[in-house]
Amino acid sequence: MTLLHTELLSAVLFVIGLYGVLARRNAVLVLMSVELMLNAVNINLIGYAAFTDPGRVLGQVLAIFVITVAAAEVGLALAIILRLYRNRGTVNLNEINLMKW
User: Fold this and answer.
1) For residue 79, what is the domain's CATH number?
2) Is 92 helix (H, G, I), strand (E, B) or coil?
3) Is residue 36 part of a domain?
4) What is the tens place of the pLDDT at every residue in 7-16?
């Protein structure tokens, strides 16, 4: 497996996640698409680290930081989505209008 294969896999996952963010209207599916994009970045980081300098673990450390930030983002986003569902009765992003009470 070469660096090109790793980059292609990362690019495909990122494009699928980007399509999910732009095309989906359900807040949970948008959140899952963002997570897919972050995992594509992790694959990219680890791929570059493995092929440029195999003795160092900088790519793995950066990937762990990205995973940590993603976990915090998921926790906060799910709390916001649950609050929106309780207040508005839907998680459809088209039907949520926060300016009207």
Assistant:
1) 1.10.287.3510
2) strand
3) yes
4) 999 999 999 9
